[in-house]
């Protein structure tokens, strides 16, 4: 029963509202009245509630809500079986004492009538054991229904919060990884006194603006991701002092289509980091978006430099984010064949 303790103490305020809970209670009492009277209109016409039916109804409702608001709250704050049985006993004693007060004392004073002529203690307590069971059981059942509605909503909130936290963590992994690589590139250009180092710094500044502002958004325009990719490629071209070792083609029906930031760039970063760069066999990048389907393909010759394990930080990160953003709506495939590495990504944007 640990789940009851944990979730009762941490129940989120954003779950089932008080108004909704009151509405459930109204529906509950309507159904009770329906099955008691309305379902059998003949019985309802013939039956005239007497004094002790009314008093029992009063005791029933008071016990119902005493058990609902006081006892159940006490029991499941820190669930233990002894607390549960103690709570049931308290509700039973509450029902019995209240019924005695109303039907044996108050009605005698007001109407000179009492319900029980045999007021032997054991007889009275045993008889009310049966009558008290109904409000206690029904109150417990309604409390459990509302509790589990709140529990389901609370668990959904926790899942959303965990999802948001994981996305933020994955984004935090991306930025340092990219900055580390880019600063190394610029360091090399400055070290060799390249006249393009200032241009590289300007490009880095442009990319950092994207990293600072756009990457914090849940989704961005596809055109912004493409601009980021182009700036990244230009930095690499400045470092290699070549301009034709990347062949980028884009064909999109709607440049305002929205995607999560950094959902395409890890495949390009991987190709530029581990691929063999040359103008004769350039890295080819092909992006198509048609009929709400994104198809992205990156192909590169495998370089001789030391490579990370397939996927590395960037691609493993990408896989996790795709699972979060597009569960069962994406496919990602890596192929290593004929000394060429191919990364293919398909996303259903519907």
From TrEMBL:
The keyword Membrane applies. SUPFAM superfamilies: ATPase domain of HSP90 chaperone/DNA topoisomerase II/histidine kinase. Residues 166-242 form the Signal transduction histidine kinase internal region domain. The chain crosses the membrane at residues 20-39, 51-72, 84-102, 131-149. Keywords: Kinase, Membrane, Transferase, Transmembrane, Transmembrane helix. The keyword Hydrolase does not apply. One of its GO terms (cellular component) is membrane. InterPro entries: Bact_2-comp_sensor_kinase, HATPase_C_sf, Sig_transdc_His_kin_internal. GO terms for molecular function: phosphorelay sensor kinase activity. This is Signal transduction histidine kinase, LytS. It comes from Flavobacterium johnsoniae (strain ATCC 17061 / DSM 2064 / JCM 8514 / BCRC 14874 / CCUG 350202 / NBRC 14942 / NCIMB 11054 / UW101) (Cytophaga johnsonae).
